[in-house]
Amino acid sequence: HQLMRTATEHGLHSGPWTDHRPGAHAVRSAKLAVWNVEAGHLCPISMTYAVVPALRHAPDLAEVYEPLLTTRDYDPVLAVPSSKRALTAGMSMTEKQGGSDVRANQTSATPNGDGTYTIVGHKWFTSAPMSDFFLTLAQAPGGLSCFFVPRVLPDGTRNRLRLQRLKDKLGNHGNASSEIEYDDATGWLVGDEGRGVKTIIEMVSLTRLDCAVASASVMMTGLSRAMHHAQH
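Above: the chain sequence. Below: its structure as tokens.
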């Protein structure tokens, strides 16, 4: 939590969305490279940074939640997202039968009369399940679509997301990943029905950028220490 707080205070989760000067993304990547002291907490930091352009495909949601995603604060309390000082975001795409082929997803999203969708299905891998909400892929009547799914609903009740277990990973133990059951969970459409991949790929591409930056940083640090050891 202390690392999360330090990272958010320095804008690693939001800098380019609040600073519109040229080179803001490069500055943020440089900060990430220098701050790569512990990989676990960088996953929710990276996804909170990456979710903003995808969420903008739902202007009504972006208007409410983007200021809470970009503020330089950290609020780990489980509560109604709109009531918090700050938010973090996660991503929920992978299913057992599809792997990286997300178009094989079977999780379903049924539209309701109030503009929400009821989501039913199982996700084999959900990143940062401690986050306040997840961008989730599910099959709507119009095809594979992207949804905003919060852990706590606007009325204060827990959304029907069942965290079945944490993944037993070889590395990155500092960051949780989970299998989640969507048991009549409530979600809001982000972008158009049938355009879920186009929508969420904006989030995916920025998280992959961070993977490259962080990996280069780790290699740079290892090389630097090896050279120092060899010379001294």
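The longest helix spans residues 196-231.
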